[in-house]
Design goal:
The complex is a heterodimer of chains A (234) and B (486). Chain A is built from 6 helices and 9 strands; from the N terminus they run ββαβββααβαβββαα. Chain A is of the alpha+beta class and 234 residues long. Chain A has 2 domains: 72 residues, Ubiquitin-like (UB roll) (Roll), CATH 3.10.20.740; 130 residues, Alpha-Beta Plaits. In chain A, the strands form 3 sheets. A 5-stranded mixed sheet of chain A has the order 2-1-5-3-4, sandwiched between helices. Chain A is globular, with a radius of gyration of 18 Å. Chain A starts with a strand and ends with a helix. Chain B has 486 residues and is of the alpha+beta class. Chain B has a single domain, classed as Cytochrome-c3 Hydrogenase, chain B. Chain B has a 4-stranded mixed sheet. In chain B, a hairpin with a 2-residue loop joins strand 12 and strand 13. In chain B, 52% of the residues are buried. The chains are: A alpha+beta (234), B alpha+beta (486). At the A-B interface, loops of A face helix 2 of B. The site of iron/sulfur cluster has 13 residues of chain A, from helix 4. FE2/S2 (inorganic) cluster binds next to loops of chain A.
């Protein structure tokens, strides 16, 4: 049983089982997201997809649409909340855009532009997270992990390898590699894995690519993340 | 060489005059003059107080990130670091870069020379030179120059802008571009950019000639000042092309002594360590490099325009070469050693850069041709370039896992460390000793330092190697003399 709901005052149809985010996208409305990916079931961890329904703030990637709902998304209040979430993500890790090879292809950076985030606002944690360069083809730079678990899910559910896992809670939370040594080289991870190109930020990187594509000519340099998401379905 | 003023006896009783910061120099320098009861200069030191400790940040990073990352080293010549790191990484990868890549990098580099030399001369130094060192402080800036000499200021501003455009067109951005990558380049020059630059280049050559003329007029108008101010004997070092030509992008190392005799020649960049040692002094964060065979007292040297113009055998573009000859003749058989001659030499290089850019812009290799090549991977590389301020050395070791394990940088300002200290002492001795201190007198010292165009913020080694550095940097200003290291 489908129906219709109001999205920022405009009617949006949905089918049974669709989430707010899916139905809104299908109708051409963008809702920011980081841990959600069209190829994977909702995860509900980053909260970037927050919307307001009946006075409550909910994750639109996880909440099924219901007939007659009123959903507020692109409002100063909700965008302000998203901005604060982004700012927290920025200070939790070590994100240094000017020398990051993912710049221009990074969803965290692109969302910060999309949502007019101009400063970090909070004090930086500067966590100490060494890189793992043990694998011949892929570098892991944990400094930039936002704990979306897309790699965890891709490696477990698509590649059937279970190379990655999240461990620890709160500020100790971090990504680990499932090997006794903790090193990527000691897993069966391969550069052709789905998990190798799923990371929305700059953690899982193909080695020796770096700046081969000039900054300024990359995905989100040429179009905003909302238009890339809507036009290319990413 | 001359260190009689370096450390005065009975320092505690001396009255202290501090000029801080040396305005209009990027970063902070500090000059400490220790005076006695009668206002005689007893001691003069140039302190570098800012530090960054970049080596530590670079170690443990993947090599392909380094040419982009090192641009944070210096706000005023990021392109030089970008290219020196790229050259070093070419070596690590064992790649002789393609013709197109080399020409694009050269274009970028000479664009940087043009913009930096124009900035330094017109914005930072011409106010002192045109109005006099003791003129009203409020007027001694580019706005003052624009009011009094509108055409000079306009040309200066446009020359710099043109250099920035060359950088943007080759590096992708005016600052912190990513055009050069280990093993080559990631972009060609766009035809539109080539055409836009070509439309302007003849003016740039013309205005660069005018800039040389302007410096020569200044020299003629006050030869006593220009030939004597901050004059002292020094060795010089720079890269020189295999045939002896000036080449600011690539070459082998050559040293000359204070009489202009070649001491060492044709040393490949990869072997710089067989030549240069670095001395640490307890009172300064910045090291003091010297030519190993002469030792620290005799082996220090100058780098930068004054060194380069006299170290090469010729400049391979005609207009700049004619100017070089006139410059050499000015010395009447002796090397030109006065501090203010840096400006003259710098403007000769400005003209050379404009000519090189003009010639390159006619070259089709900029628009097409392979940008990247393959090579046989090694674990170590040195990249040396003649940056606007002088020789810049980047040296890396890279592990089999692609992470940098060792990084050593020697920037131009560090090479000039002893020379700048010597210049300050000479000027202090000549102009300040026993006289009442005035703003204008103090500015004489600033003028001497500024002639070297130091980029102080990038010039110090620290973090990890020198544990006291953070504490000292935080203290800022007065505490320099508490620096005690074992
Ligand atoms: S590595 Fe990337 S994909 Fe994996 S959890 Fe971290 S941010 Fe998400
Ligand atoms: S996208 Fe919905 S919680 Fe992350």
């Amino acid at each position: 049983m489908g129906g219709k709901f109001l999205f920022d005052g405009r009617p949006v149809p949905f089918e049974e089982g669709q989430t707010i985010l899916q139905a809104a996208r299908a109708a051409g409305h963008y809702i920011p997201h980081l841990c959600w990916h069209p190829d994977f079931p909702p995860h509900g961890s980053c909260k970037l997809c927050v919307v307001k329904v009946g006075g409550r703030h909910v994750s639109s990637c996880a909440l099924p649409a219901r007939d007659g709902m009123e959903v507020e998304s692109n409002t100063p209040e909700i965008n302000g909340e998203r901005r604060a979430l982004l700012q927290m993500l920025f200070v939790e890790g070590n994100h240094f855009c000017p020398s990051c090879e993912k710049s221009g292809n990074c969803q965290l950076q692109a969302l910060a532009y999309e949502l007019d985030m101009s400063s970090a606002r909070f004090a930086h944690f500067y966590p100490d997270r060494p890189v793992d360069a043990s694998h011949p083809d892929v570098l892991l730079d944990f400094n930039r992990c936002i704990f979306c678990e897309l790699c965890v899910r891709a490696s477990r559910d698509v590649d059937h390898k279970g190379v990655f896992a999240l461990t620890g809670r709160g500020i100790r939370k971090h990504l680990v590699v499932n090997a006794e040594s903790g090193r990527l080289a000691d897993t069966d991870f391969a550069v052709s894995d789905r998990a190798a190109d799923i990371c929305p930020v700059g953690v899982i990187l193909r080695k020796r690519v770096g700046f081969a594509v000039p900054i300024g000519e990359r995905k989100y340099d040429e179009a905003s993340i909302s238009s890339v998401a809507m036009e290319k379905g990413e | 060489m001359d260190s009689s003023l370096e450390t005065a006896a009975g320092r505690e009783q001396l009255r202290r005059v501090v000029i801080d910061p040396v305005s209009r120099v990027e970063g902070h320098g500090k000059v400490t003059l220790l005076l006695d009861e009668d206002d005689h200069v007893r001691e003069a030191r140039l302190h570098i107080v800012e530090f960054r400790g970049f080596e530590v940040f670079i170690q443990g990073r993947p090599y392909w990130e380094v040419p982009v990352m090192v641009q944070r080293l210096c706000g005023i010549c990021p392109v030089s670091h970008h290219l020196a790191a790229s050259k070093a990484m070419d070596r690590v990868l064992g790649i002789p870069i393609t013709r197109s890549a080399e020409k694009l990098r050269r274009l970028m580099h000479y664009g940087q020379i043009l913009q930096s030399h124009a900035l330094h001369f017109f914005h930072l130094s011409s106010p002192d030179l045109l109005f006099g060192f003791e003129s009203e402080v409020g007027k001694r800036n580019i706005v003052g120059v624009a009011a009094a000499y509108p055409e000079v200021a306009r040309q200066g501003v446009l020359l710099r802008k043109f250099g920035q455009e060359v950088i943007r067109a080759t590096a992708g951005k005016r600052i912190h571009g990513t055009g050069s990558v280990p093993g080559g380049m990631n972009r060609h020059l766009a035809v539109e950019d080539r055409d836009a630059l070509r439309a302007e280049i003849d003016h740039m050559v013309e205005w660069s000639r005018a800039a040389v003329e302007l410096v020569k007029r200044l020299h003629r108008a006050d030869p006593a000042l220009y030939d004597e101010f901050g004059r002292f004997r020094a060795n010089v070092m720079s890269l020189v092309r295999a045939d002896g030509a000036m080449d600011l992008y690539h070459g082998a190392l050559r040293f000359r002594d204070a009489d202009g005799r070649i001491l060492v020649d044709k040393v490949p960049d990869q072997s710089y360590r067989s030549l240069i040692r670095e001395q640490v002094k307890p009172w300064s964060y910045m090291k003091f490099p010297y030519l190993q065979q002469l030792g620290p007292d005799e082996g220090w040297y100058q780098v930068g325009p004054l060194a380069r113009v006299q170290n090469c055998d010729f400049i391979p573009t005609p207009l700049a070469e004619a100017e070089r000859r006139e410059f050499i003749d000015h010395g009447r058989g002796e090397p030109v050693r006065a501090t203010l001659a840096y400006h003259w030499a710098r403007m000769i290089e400005l003209l050379h850069a404009a000519e090189v850019i003009r010639d390159l812009l006619g070259d089709g290799d900029l628009l097409e041709g392979a940008l990247l090549a393959d090579g046989e991977r090694g674990n170590e590389g040195v990249g040396i370039i003649e940056a606007p301020r002088g020789t810049l050395i980047h040296h890396y070791q890279v592990g089999d896992d692609d992470l940098v394990t060792m990084c050593n940088l020697i920037v131009s300002t560090t090479h000039n460390n002893q020379a700048m200290n010597t210049a300050v002492r000479e000027v202090a001795r000549r102009y300040l000793d026993g006289r009442k201190l005035t703003e204008g007198l103090l500015n004489h010292i600033e003028v001497a330092i500024r002639a070297y165009d130091p980029c102080l913020s990038c010039a110090t080694h620290a973090l990890g190697k020198m544990p006291l550095v953070l504490e000292l940097a935080d203290a800022g200003g007065e505490v320099v003399d508490r620096v005690v290291r074992d």
